[in-house]
Amino acid sequence: MARRALLVGINDYRGIRDLRGCLNDISNMRNILKTCLGFRNNDIRVLVDARATKENILHRLRYMVRLAEPGDFMMFHFSGHGAQIRDRNGDELQDGMDELICPWDFNWDGRFVLDDDFDEIFRKLPEGSLLEVILDCCHSGDGTTSLSRSAEHSPMGRYISPPPDIAYRYEGEEPELTLRGFTSANRSGNRSTMNHILWSACRSDQESADAYINGNYNGAFTYYFCKHMRETGGYITRRNLLERVQNSLRYNRYPQSPQLACMNDAAFENRPFQFPSEDEPERMLFLTTPYMRGDDVKRMQQGLKNAGFRIVVDGVFGPHTHKVIKQFQEKNEILSDGVVGPIVRSVLFD
């Protein structure tokens, strides 16, 4: 089982507005892959600034998919500008929009990577492999100027507005367009996340912030994504990680709401960037904000119920579950801290 990652970050664009936090995003994500997830240097390919051309991005993605075999895990992270244009090939019959990412050599005459390009590549993933995609870019153009920051360190949106000749194609039709983003299928049902998982830094009607956080510029989404991965050592479900990142962005007044699209419900409850493994250690369970959720919580609650404790088996580690765990620990003369680890599990299930 192989692991491969492609990380793309662009601060220094050719011909359009530069960004400031994208290279830090790539460095941050690379650190997470190595320290939390066991990736090696040779497993990770990086494209930054002038090397992150359209051809290089597509070549690297196609090469990664071409090497894929059942059981392989891959991830792709893009940090840079995003945009939307009116669909030109007629496949976006529902909303009329194509989403795109902007490579270093971006222009409006085809030097961009469309959602259709991703769809064409990702369709070739072999069954039994998994690709996880993170896009820290904008998919449309609501501003971030309402944020209260100094002018020097005010966040920028990672969005490029189309020029007039492109924008005129749908002038006056905006109320009729349902902005779809990379995560949804078109009307024909041909595009979806049936063979990959997609994290998007914002909804399709929002901007992704390029922000000054703790003394450095970062993509706000990538910063908090990595922060919570690091705090949990990667032992966190995708659903819980999404909730934590959303809450952090909301608390710090970034007007963006990250999205997660998975191929099935079970993938929401698995750990990010890896296949579930029967021999991997179970995560520690404890009271957090937002609450931990998942089948492991439900299994623990069912064990407590079978042991005679009054508890609702709902898969949510809330205050009542925390209280019951402490009662169980006290009854069995275990340190009463409300944390479910190997000792609690061994007493509860063995």
TrEMBL record:
GO terms for biological process: proteolysis. Residues 293-346 form the Peptidoglycan binding-like domain. Residues 3-266 form the Peptidase C14 caspase domain. GO terms for molecular function: cysteine-type endopeptidase activity. InterPro entries: Caspase-like_dom_sf, Metacaspase, Pept_C14_caspase, Peptidoglycan-bd-like, PGBD-like_sf, PGBDSf. It comes from the Bacteria. GO terms for cellular component: cytoplasm. Pfam families: Peptidase_C14, PG_binding_1. This is Peptidoglycan binding domain-containing protein. It comes from Desulfonema magnum.
